[in-house]
Design a protein that fits this description.
single chain; mainly beta; Immunoglobulin-like; 6-stranded mixed β-sheet; 7 helices; 32 strands; globular
């Protein structure tokens, strides 16, 4: 037999330990079952005004999802609202299983009065993430929450175990119904120029603004160190976070352990998550925690998120001036901080091998997408666009059409360019090919006057570069290809660009979108189809047995039989929409197929 390239005797000595680790990794996963009742609640009043809030099991924010690498979650979502609902799991990669991604391109919505169970795995992931509703501007109404993916016990974490962990879900908030805000998005002033009213911390208003308002407080013991998981669950504002008289050690972002850097404040952009360590090393007292908006002239502290770090036995309220952060318009500070966030190459994460064993030092790119975000009026309505295309969601989810209609009549693959802008502004179903097991370079060019942030479902990407002005091929000379951090959401500064690399080893239909809610709602998104022709379910999961049908299949209720569908081939170029007879035949096959699962 071929022995490993180490001393044979040493290998035999270490074999029991290797066998123990292998066994521990194999048996540690659990199945976790959750029931979520999603309702509109008018009693919560996070902004001290009358407005409906989307609650989960009566909670706002929603319940914490707390699991460990490779745990399997079964989340049964009961939609008790008055409109369709989907929940997406921001940063959870849904390995080989985009059927569970919870966006319009992968799932039929859960209709009012109905329920549906998501079944997904924290496959080979650790870290800090969030979830939120993906349809109809609902994120502005709530239903968001924290996700923790903990390391397995056999994996060494690159810092001492903290005394405790806290989740801070921080985000901007409108002091009116999300439905009202949504309805006003058909006006240019609201679509392009409106801003939220304040920042909430864990669904609570600012400390002492007004004095009767409920605020967030974290209880700590002097001398102890705590892990604070911070997520921006807002709709529009980046924020700068800081704690009065305390420094933070950055250790993780969206599933990647970082080189540890000590910070006075941290910029967190929409959709992003971080972990910091904070040591209670000050005099016993209370101290301000502040989240202030970026790229916004917020002289009114009523717009700030303000909470309290409370030391045990403290009788001294937080006092003095609020801790100051960087100038909110200091783009150079923010970019330099972003560039300082580097991947820890030597530590393990979800697996015992070092993170840096998979890197971008010498990769060969298969594709480059250059995606321009801009605005346009189309048929008299304000839209956000990608390469001058505003996404138009079809009634039939792309994944469903891909599986059972080969996409025919629902979308035309690669109809729109991923490297140049369409001559005219149009609305369309923008689906692009992603080369399976190829490296893709994504360049996000922000032609807007405001911050933006881009997210790719299904993957973590390497953030290799930021720049001002227009991206050019020569810009690659400024890339960090040694230790770029891996995450799933990257900020893009006004008038600038950001570049990432991703390895497309996860077949499926994956949403590539702006995390800014009105941008996303008004069309700044597309889908990347990563296709593997191998029908082996180990390569990509088949449709779930509880698959919901809608769109082209809407006239047919689940329950009647269907035959297994052959593996989907790449969809054809433009074709006629399927007739009702054709769709009926396809549905009969689908239902037989589902009954066989």
């Amino acid at each position: 037999m071929a022995w490993p390239s180490v001393d044979r005797r040493q290998w035999l000595i270490n074999f029991p330990a290797i066998l123990f680790i292998f066994f521990a990794l194999a048996v540690s996963a659990e199945d976790i079952f959750l029931d979520w009742h999603v309702t509109l609640d008018t009693s919560i009043k996070p902004a001290s005004v009358d407005q409906p809030v989307i609650a989960i099991n009566g909670q706002f924010p929603g319940p914490l999802i707390n699991g460990t690498t490779n745990d399997m979650f079964h989340v049964n979502v009961y939609n008790e609202m008055d409109e369709p609902l989907l929940i997406t799991w921001n940063g959870i990669q849904q390995r080989l299983n985009s059927w569970q991604d919870g966006v319009s391109g992968t799932n039929c919505p859960i209709l009012p009065g109905n329920n549906w169970t998501y079944i997904f795995q924290f496959k080979d992931q650790i870290g800090t993430f969030s979830y939120f509703p993906s349809l109809s501007f609902q994120k502005a109404g709530g239903a968001f929450g924290a996700i923790r993916v903990n390391n397995r016990p056999v994996i060494q974490v690159p810092f001492l175990k903290p005394e405790a962990e806290f989740d801070l879900l921080i985000g901007d908030w409108y002091e009116r119904s999300y439905k009202e805000v949504r309805s006003l998005m058909s006006t240019k002033s609201m679509a392009y120029n409106s801003t939220p009213d304040k920042i909430l911390i864990n669904g609570k208003g600012a400390y002492l603004v007004p004095p009767t308002e409920v605020h967030e407080s974290l209880n700590v013991t002097k001398g102890k160190t705590y892990r604070i998981r911070i997520s921006n669950v807002g709709t529009a504002w980046s924020f700068n976070f800081r704690i009065q008289n305390h420094r933070m050690v950055l250790v993780e972002t969206e599933g990647s352990y970082t080189n540890q850097i000590t910070l006075d404040s941290l910029d967190v952009h929409v959709g992003q998550s971080y972990s910091v360590l904070v040591t209670a090393d000050q005099t016993v007292s209370d101290y301000y925690m502040v989240a202030s908006p970026k790229m916004f002239n917020a002289t009114d502290v009523n717009k700030f998120g303000i909470g309290v770090l409370h030391y045990d036995n403290s009788t001294t309220p937080a006092s003095g001036s609020l801790p100051t952060g960087p100038d909110p318009f200091d783009q150079e500070f923010s970019i330099n901080q972003a560039k300082s966030i580097r991947w820890n190459l030597t530590t393990g994460a979800a697996r015992p091998n070092p993170q840096g064993s998979f890197n971008v030092h010498n990769v060969t790119l298969s594709q480059t997408f250059i995606l321009h975000a801009s605005i346009a009026e189309i048929f008299g309505l304000p839209q956000f666009t990608v390469n001058n295309v505003s996404y138009l969601a079809p009634d039939t989810p792309l994944k469903l059409a891909d599986q059972f209609l080969n996409g025919s009549g629902i979308y035309d693959l690669d109809k729109f360019s991923t490297n140049s802008s369409n001559v005219e502004s149009v609305r369309g179903v923008f689906v692009a090919t992603g080369t399976h097991k190829g490296w893709i370079e994504l360049v996000f060019q922000n032609d807007l006057e405001d911050m933006d942030a881009w997210h790719l479902d299904g993957f973590g990407f390497f953030v290799v570069g930021f720049g001002t002005g227009k991206w050019k091929p020569e810009s690659r000379s400024s890339y960090n290809l040694y230790d770029p951090v891996v995450r799933s959401t990257v900020q893009v500064y006004p008038g600038g660009w950001s570049a990432v690399y991703a390895y497309l080893d996860n077949p499926g239909m994956w949403n590539l979108r702006s995390q800014h809610l009105k941008n996303w709602y008004l069309g700044e998104e597309l889908y990347v189809r990563v296709y593997d022709a191998d029908p082996n379910p180990a390569k990509e999961r088949p449709p779930p047995s509880n698959l919901l049908l809608c769109g082209a299949f809407a006239p047919f209720a689940p329950g009647a039989p269907l035959a297994p569908s052959p593996p989907a081939a790449p969809p054809p170029k433009p074709s006629k929409a399927p007739s009702l007879q054709t769709a009926a035949g396809k549905v009969s096959h689908i239902l037989v197929y589902l009954n066989m699962l």
